[in-house]
Amino acid sequence: MVVGLLRIVLALPWNDSLKGKRSVVRKIIERARARFNVAAAELEDLDAHRRAVIGFVVLSNDRRHAMSMLDKLTSFVAGATEAQVVDRRVEVTTYSADSLGLAGDPYAAEDGSAGGPYADDEDSENDDGE
Question: What is the C-alpha end-to-end distance of the chain, expressed in Å?
Fold first, then answer.
């Protein structure tokens, strides 16, 4: 599993209120979530009306795909509003099943198929034949 993190700092020099800032940030976050299927949130400087820090997280099974999505997100944010991108930080981390503690999964079937406590129950909801 590959986790990609993107932290974007935006300058809003024309903005004079928190209401205006929140409108811009909300629009960016909602559009990014809908278009890229990412997790997103405003992270810092919540009370500063001329600066916004937004974080995005993507999950993938391929490092190149995660990097590509983060690059597209950066371009999207830069073009989505009049706000100026003043800083961008990217971190991509790969996790294996061992590092997540999943290597010894007690529910994993020996043949690699899906397992679990109810894997053999054909009709576990209705055991009385009805």
Answer: 42
The rounded distance, in Å, linking the Cα atoms of 33 and 90 is 18
Return the CATH number of 2-94, one of 3.40.50.720, 3.30.70.1120, 3.30.1360.120, 3.20.20.100. 3.30.70.1120
Q: In whole angstroms, give the CA distance from residue 9 to residue 94.
A: 25
Q: To 5 degrees, how large is the angle CA 77–CA 49–CA 38? A: 30
Residue 8 pLDDT = 93
- Phi, psi (degrees; rounded to nearest 5) at 89: -125, 135
Domain ranges within the chain, ordered by starting residue: 2-94
Look at the pTM and tell me if it is higher than 0.85: no
d(CA 3, CA 38): 11
Cβ distance 6 to 59 under 8 Å? no
